[in-house]
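Morning!

This is the sequence you dropped in the shared folder:
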Amino acid sequence: MQSLADVLRRLLHMVLPGECAGCGTALSDDPVPFFCRPCWAGLSPLGGPACPRCGRPFASPVALTFSPDHLCGSCRQKRPAYTKAWSLYPYTPPLRDALRLFKYRGKVALADALGRLLHSSAMPQRLDLLMPVPIHSSRLREREFNQSLLLADRLNRRLQLPLSFDNLVRLRPTVPQTELSRSARLKNLRRAFAVLRPDDVREKRILLIDDVFTTGTTVNECAKALRKAGAADIYVCTLARTI
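The structure's back. Tokens below.
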């Protein structure tokens, strides 16, 4: 049985025809805004062995067979400040298209569908606090929303944790990480985050939410600020990861 939302969406497409943002076909039966059913059904989660610390996929399918705790080269060279990070999907179409529409073109109608993808993630047994990666106030005024907060809010409908969105803050605006080299990324975000109320995170097990894991520099700098404030463990869950 079709929901009222499905019926209304079909009627809208009859009046204002649209195309799937993934494949360009005419939309009629789209399970989520802007995408056709075949495209959205084609989402494939990340699988196979990955670094147990940062979640970096390993090339070999037997990489962890004899050494389940084997870390990737980057984590062995310098341990991240977070306890564990993982991502659910590769940052490839159609999810990449959806996240770009959501983040850069203000298509917040995608928040529910993207948030539902996070619901499938296995979580640590005990968590005390949920936090989104913050954006600077100037970026918030420009974009009018924090995409990570919207994702955290949707996930929290399942987890029912205290959601803290104004304690971990970004102190200064920074150049987008995608525009910089690895060494420049490290300098760009150094001491860019702070915790305003350390007592609220002290000895807490925190789940940090972001949309995309690229190099991990952003979430690691957030974790450093939380560690400095006395947090016990910081787990990082991102919807997608560049591979």
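Headline: The chain has two domains: 1-42, 45-241.

More detail when I'm at my desk.
O.
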